[in-house]
Each structure stands twice: as C-alpha cells, then as structure tokens.
Design a protein that fits this description.
Length: 240
C-alpha cells in the first residue's frame, strides 16, 4: 500500500472554497485532510470530557464525542466574535480491540502495551463526523468503521517508534501513515478514517445538510494519501 502521509504537499489539494466553516479540532491530520475538500475553514478546538461511559461501545462513544465537540464549538462561536463559521465540523476517532477502547497512551509503557496487544491481529478504528449548522440548528453525523490488520512488528520496532514520540497523541498509540514504523501492510477499507477524518462520510453529511463541495473528494483523498480506495462508492450511497 503506497502512501505519502502528507496531504498538504500534494498537488491534488484544491483551492479553498469560500464557505463559513469552523473545524472543532486542532489535529494536524484532520486539518490536512479537511483541506482536500476545498473548504476554507477556521480552527476552534472543542474542550470536552473524553472519558467513555462504563461499558460504552466504541461506535456510540465516538458519535457522542463528535456531537459534544460540535455543540461545544458552536457555543463558543455563538458567544464570541469568531470570524467565520455558521457550520461546525467535528470528529472523534478511537481504536477498539474487541470491546476494549484504546485511547491515547499516558506513557511509554502504556504505548508499548497497546502496540504489543495489537501486533499481528486485526482491530477496528471508528471515526464519527458531526456537522452542525448554526443557522438552522441542525446536526447530522456519520460513523466510519475500518478493520485494520497490524503486521507482526518486533519489540525493537515498537521501542524505536515510541522513541520518536509519535504515539503519545494517537488513539491506540500509532499512526497508520508513519513512514518509519509502517504498522499496516495492507488495508481494504477507508484509509482516511484511520488517519482521523473519513472524507467521503463527511461529504455525505455535508450533502445531507444542503452543501455540495466543489472538489472531487474521493479523487483528492486517494491522490493525497497514495491509496486506492474501493469502498468510497458504498460510502457515498450510505451503505457503509
């Protein structure tokens, strides 16, 4: 699976459309991916409690988180002199190994334990996207799920990856696009979901709220990520 891991450096990134959008996230990965839609946006990270409820499944958890982030950002936008933004875009991503939600590691040992747990096995990545229109108070969400088969990397590779510092702000302690660690050799589902923002799901939500992006989002996403996606037609139809 080829990938360059740097959407912002790709010529497929379209010229931004003038559109009042606030991205409720400070994630560099989400900012780069959102640029591929052609939407101009401002960033206003949302501060919410991300603790899962006891026994809360991963899918409902990320949907709840995305909606809470969207509402929190909307409250700030409505009570401040924020420059842009009648639409809020929020997202939340988590890694799940069966019924076990894997959040961001607190230290090197926890990062090692997560990566050792996932090694040589398949797990799921869930991302929910929520779009909230301030003018109509309407909110729509979509949930993306990708099965992720991890390769059988060694303990030495885990330690070397942890030493880069990359795992600490990542759910599940890894970034699929990291060129040095390269934790996944092949993938059949939505790659952008695992990076943190499933763009075709976002496009579907935007269309459902009455906005049609000018960019060819599947084409821009695949070109920027260097990944041939076979599932985007199903996503666009609402089948995934």
């Amino acid at each position: 699976m080829e990938k360059n891991g740097n959407p912002s450096a790709n010529p497929a990134v379209p010229t931004p459309q003038t559109f009042p959008v606030i991205l409720a996230s400070n994630s560099p990965r989400r900012k780069e991916l959102l640029r591929l839609t052609g939407l101009g946006y401002q960033v206003a990270p949302a501060d919410v409690d991300e603790t899962p409820y006891p026994g809360e499944p991963a899918g409902p958890y990320v949907v709840r988180m995305a909606e809470e982030k969207a509402r929190a950002a909307a409250q700030v936008a409505a009570t401040s002199q924020h420059d842009g933004g009648t639409w809020i875009i929020a997202a939340d991503t988590t890694v799940a190994d069966g019924d076990h939600i894997l959040g961001k590691p607190q230290d090197a040992q926890e990062a090692f334990d997560m990566l050792a747990q996932l090694r040589g096995r398949e797990h799921q990545v869930y991302t929910a996207v929520a779009v909230y229109r301030l003018d109509t108070l309407l909110m729509k969400t979509a949930l993306a799920t990708t099965n992720v088969p991890m390769r059988a990397y060694t303990d030495e590779e885990i330690h070397a990856y942890i030493d880069t510092g990359d795992p600490y702000d990542k759910a599940g302690s890894y970034a699929i696009q990291h060129p040095g660690f390269h934790p996944v050799e092949s993938l059949a589902g939505c790659y952008a979901n695992v990076v943190g923002l499933p763009l075709c799901h976002l496009e579907r939500v935007l269309r459902g709220l009455g906005f049609v992006p000018a960019a060819n989002i599947p084409e821009a996403c695949q070109s920027a990520l260097g990944y041939t996606c076979t599932v985007y037609p199903q996503v666009q139809k609402g089948e995934l």
